[in-house]
Amino acid sequence: MSHQDFSLVTTNGEELSTPLDKVKQEIEKQKVTYAKLCAEQRELSKDKDSLLDLTEKFQKSMVTLRNNRDEEEKEQTQGLEKYKNRMKALQEEESRLRVEVQKVEEELHHFERLNHQLKQQTQMCAAVPEKTVVFTGDVDVGAGAGTGARACSFDMKARIVYPMEEGTALVTFEDEEVAQKIMSVEQQGIIFGDCMIRLQVKPVQFLVPSHIKMDTHVCPRRILVSNLPKKVEESRLMDRLEIYFQKKRNGGGEVESIDILPDSGSVVITFVEENVAKSLTGTEYHEVDIEKKKHRLRVTPFLNGEVTDLQMRTSVSRRTVLLTGIPDIMDRDSMQDSLEIFFQKGGNGGGEVDAIFYNPVGHSTLAVFEEDCPHKE
């Protein structure tokens, strides 16, 4: 009989447990516990896998969110940069338009002054019938007018207002050939101490009248009085003229206004009625009592004029050059003196400087060109 078949039996027939049986029972209990632990382990493993999967999804979501945030920040940065560039471009455009508006206004003011001067030129003393007068450049008497028209000429002194941009200079030489030689070089290198700057050399161009057409006629209500005494107080003179020319016995009538023509020594008298002017101009010279003394005044018809055609042409200065691109590296006086010294040296291709003006960066100014003699600036 083997050891496994050995067992103990009580007197009443019950089987008695042995140590081996207890071990078996314990093993069975442990098997059950092990099975439970395995089941729990499987559950834990399943929960772990779920957590790992959730963590992986969360990490992917974080990466996606981070990428989206970075992309949004990048787009915002790019959008802000574009906005800044757009604002800068708009500010530059605004500045450019302001400069253009200023130039146009200055040119408009110049043309208005020119038109005013031309109108004053037409207020000349000449008893002529109503005619069309044409002025074409520098014309002689009889040139530029059609058949039946009377040609006239005016001596006009050119006065051109030239707007200067910032960082530029105008240099006028006494010798025209020097200016032309300087303008033949588009870039001019100028040394200041240990550094050298390169400036652009450009010609100075203007718009000037080339053809003027005017319609003129004798004004029926105005006369021009000249040969006035020079040492009589203006208000006193006006009073005496008004008293004389409003009297019927002198051929006058009711005076509407008296205006002095600047720098001409003449006055324009306007009457209320139209026939008075014609009556007075029938006698060219009138003896008028002024300051208890007789003065021989000349009375002539007043000629009205209206510009009906104005054509312009481009004119280039022969003695002045324009320097552009001057950096803001020293004060105005020092830069102007340095430029003048440089362009006065024959070794630099320069010559005697008649005038120079430097307009620094950040400034705006106007240069005035006046004609001191015919065909010369």
UniProtKB/TrEMBL annotation:
Keywords: Coiled coil, Cytoplasm, Immunity, Innate immunity, Nucleus, RNA-binding, Secreted. It holds the Pfam family NID. The keyword Secreted applies. GO terms for cellular component: cytoplasm; extracellular space; nucleus. Residues 20-121 form a coiled coil. GO terms for molecular function: RNA binding. GO terms for biological process: innate immune response; regulation of innate immune response. Belongs to the NMI family. This is RRM domain-containing protein. It comes from Aldrovandia affinis.
